[in-house]
Write a structure and sequence with these properties.
Strand order of the largest sheet of chain A: 8-9-10-3-11-12
Largest sheet of chain A: 6 strands, mixed
CATH architecture of chain B: Orthogonal Bundle
Oligomer: heterodimer
CATH superfamily of chain B: MetI-like
Number of strands of chain A: 12
Strand content of chain B: under 5%
Order of helices and strands of chain A: EEEHEEEEHEHHHEHEHEEHH
Structural class of chain B: mainly alpha
Number of strands of chain B: 0
Number of helices of chain B: 9
CATH topology of chain B: MetI-like fold
Order of helices and strands of chain B: HHHHHHHHH
Helix content of chain B: over 70%
Number of helices of chain A: 9
Shape of chain B: globular
CATH class of chain B: Mainly Alpha
Largest interface: A-B, 31 and 23 residues
Number of domains of chain B: 1
Chain lengths: 256, 220
């Protein structure tokens, strides 16, 4: 088996006195699609954000492609890596956010090009053609010259996904990418994500779309109070929940 | 009222007034450019995690904002040389106006930075930009566009403050108006024309800045 794309070992994270992640273990290989489900405050988003160090973590290891994210050991002591190193590591993963977070002063095209030029050090022409390819892929090429404020939520999210994926990350992180969308716009975004999954992209998703998690994932993790409450293949998890908490959660989220 | 207006005496030296107006504009442009730089540093300083940096930035802003600008101008020109720091009168005024505008712009920029969504920084970091790269490419350009209207206000206000440079004999509009006034005794005419020139200049500056705002506005 190939070496893991993502390996999380005994991850702990605190916000002050509140421990929000209480020892998470997770391994993902090339092409895996893992969905994190669970109620609000269960730690799903925090877990996702620890993977690209948008949240610092106190204990444990998060490693992408065999490289520990954010920290190293010096003389037995845990030391934070330099800003530059962390920036390089962050570019190993791509992230799509709940509120899209497009750069409002740039067109769709420039949103995608910025990382390619500044981080991947591509020439403008090359970055332009890569950006064009991905905007076409998410169905946004016709609106490449539009600014985020001139696009619908679904369109903005598709551009945001193109921006992340154009960087050719080893792992894509999706943080509730449809939560801020009007219901009629959800599908256009989900179909883009589905498409990427079909292509073999390794993806870690936080989602409230249970049917989608069921359809797209190779594994589903139910987060419960900072721990992995239950995990397994989607059919098993959704059809035969072992714990009452998961059964209750699925009932409340109206999964059928 | 028995007063005979005679503008001829003032018109004779109109080119002096114009050159004074030009210098005032140049002083304002240079000072606000330097002030923007100082203001940006201090605004980031006020939002820094480091307490000492926060303290220094806040101290600068309150010290400058609570001192009348005329006092600052006189202090820089007359007192600093006693401490061995010497400038020509124009340089001295630019230093003063830059430091003065920097303090006001700090608050403008600080408000602009606080108002930005946190997601902007996170999105920058997530594509592999460093904190500095995020500030340079995203935070500052977006913030700058958002605060342009209040920046314009400040610019007009600073331009009018250049009239105080006359106190240290910087040859700008007010300086020449005073000179013409003394030489011709056409008090009303001189100050009427000088005032009118300030009003018109401010009007034009405002119109130009509105154009800039429209051009740079983030399309919605």
């Amino acid at each position: 088996m190939s070496s893991p794309v993502l390996e999380i070992v005994d991850l702990h994270k605190r916000f002050g006195a509140l421990e929000v992640l209480k020892g998470i273990n997770l391994t993902m290989h090339q092409g895996d699609v893992v969905s994190l489900i669970g109620s609000s405050g269960s730690g799903k988003t925090t877990l996702l954000r620890c993977v690209n160090l948008l949240e610092e973590y106190e204990d444990g290891v998060v490693a992408v492609a065999g490289e520990q994210i954010g920290y190293t050991k010096k003389n037995g002591k845990r030391v934070r890596l330099s800003e530059r190193e962390i920036a390089r590591q962050r570019a190993m993963t791509g992230m799509a956010f709940q509120h899209f977070n497009l750069f409002p002063h740039m067109t769709a095209m420039h949103n995608v090009m910025l990382g390619l030029i500044k981080t991947r050090r591509m020439k403008k022409d090359e970055a332009h053609s890569v950006a064009e390819k991905w905007l076409e892929r998410v169905g946004m090429l016709a609106r490449r010259d539009h600014y985020p404020g001139q696009l619908s939520g679904g369109q903005q999210q598709r551009v945001a996904i193109a921006r992340a994926i154009a960087m050719n990350p080893q792992l894509m992180l999706f943080d509730e990418v449809t939560s801020a969308l009007d219901p009629e716009l959800v599908n256009e975004v989900l179909s883009v994500v589905r498409d990427l999954a079909k292509d073999g992209m390794t993806m870690l998703l936080v989602t409230h779309e249970m049917q989608f998690a069921h359809d797209v994932s190779s594994k589903v993790i139910f987060m419960d109070d900072g721990r992995i409450g239950e995990e397994g293949p989607p059919d098993q998890l959704f059809r035969q929940p072992k714990s009452e908490r998961l059964a209750a959660f699925l009932k409340s989220s109206k999964f059928s | 009222m028995d007063y005979n207006f005679n503008f001829a005496a003032v018109w004779r030296d109109f080119d002096l007034l114009m050159s004074g107006l030009g210098l005032g504009l140049i002083l304002a442009v240079i000072s606000i450019a330097i002030g923007c730089f100082i203001g940006l540093l201090a605004a980031f300083g006020m939002l820094s995690k480091n307490r000492a940096i926060r303290w220094v930035s806040a101290g600068y802003v309150s010290a400058i904002r609570n001192t009348p600008i005329l006092v600052l101008i006189l202090f820089t020109f007359f007192a600093l040389p006693q401490l061995g720091i010497r400038f020509g009168k124009i340089e001295s005024f630019i230093v003063t106006l830059s430091v003065y505008s920097g303090a006001y712009l700090t608050e403008v920029f600080r408000a602009g930075l606080i108002a930005l969504p946190t997601g902007l920084r996170e999105a920058g970091l997530s594509i592999g930009l460093t904190e500095f790269g995020t500030k340079l490419n995203l935070i500052i350009p977006v913030m700058f566009r958002n605060v342009l209207p209040s920046l314009s206000n400040n610019f007009i206000s600073l331009f009018k403050d250049t009239s105080l440079a006359a106190a240290i004999a910087v040859p700008e509009l007010t300086f020449y108006a005073r000179k013409i006034n003394v030489e011709t005794f056409r008090v009303i005419e001189t100050w009427m024309i000088a005032s009118l020139m300030y009003v018109l200049a401010c009007y034009v500056i405002a119109a130009v800045l509105r154009q800039v705002e429209t051009r740079l506005a983030i399309p919605r």
